[in-house]
Amino acid sequence: MEFVDYHALLTLYADYASVVDNGDWDRWPDFFTDDCIYKVQPRENHERGLPLATLSFESKAMLRDRIYGIRETLFHDPYYQRHIVGAPLVRSADGERIVSEANYAVLRTKPDQLTDVLNAGRYLDTVVRTPDGLRFASRLCIFDSEMIPNSLIYPI
Fold first, then answer.
1. Of 5, 57, 91, 137, whose Cβ has the fewest other Cβ atoms within 10 Å?
2. Distance between CA atoms of 30 and 35, rounded to whole angstroms?
3. Based on the structure, what is the number of domains in the chain?
């Protein structure tokens, strides 16, 4: 893999974290291809090949629907997110596709409480080259704990 491609991958990961941390929801779907897969899934289910996921979307249109839900229909205590993402490990790469993974931790801060760990795990990604730059064809957020808070509102 060329350095320029790895730098583009690092930029994709950093920009993604910045957008979700800043609640720039209109931009979140733009990180994905039209026919993308986005899942938030417990590690146990992933490792056993079980399909049950906490969140599972199969297109950019479904991601946009989630954003509508966040803004218009979901009622929850407001909170801030902060992603800490490790450097991506490239598992394979060719001219058009990169398969990579990276560890992540998402911290949650409610305005009147101490910060806590919302979610931790690893991203398993398939990234493709598009005319608009690198985009996620698939992003699996595999979280380590079998337990999550009673609601998972924002993207991981």
1. 91
2. 12
3. 1
148 has pLDDT over 80: no
13-61 tens-digit pLDDT: 999 999 999 999 999 999 999 999 999 999 999 999 999 999 999 999 9
**156 falls within a domain:** no
Q: Could you tell me if 95 and 129 are in contact, meaning their C-beta atoms sit under 8 angstroms apart?
A: yes
Tokens of 121: 């795990």
Dist CA 118 CA 82 (whole Å): 10
Q: Which domain holds residue 67?
A: 3-143
Task: Return mean pLDDT, the chain.
Answer: 94
Contact 32, 136 (CB under 8 A): yes
Is 137 among the domain residues?
yes
Q: Where does the chain show beta strands of DSSP type E?
A: 32-42, 55-57, 80-85, 89-93, 97-109, 116-130, 133-143
**Does 153 fall in a domain?**
no
Asked if residue 152 is part of any domain, the answer here is no
Exposed (0-12), middle (13-18) or buried (19+): which is 7, by Cβ within 10 Å? exposed
CATH code at position 96: 3.10.450.50
pTM metric for this prediction: 0.94
For 141, the token pair is 């957020």
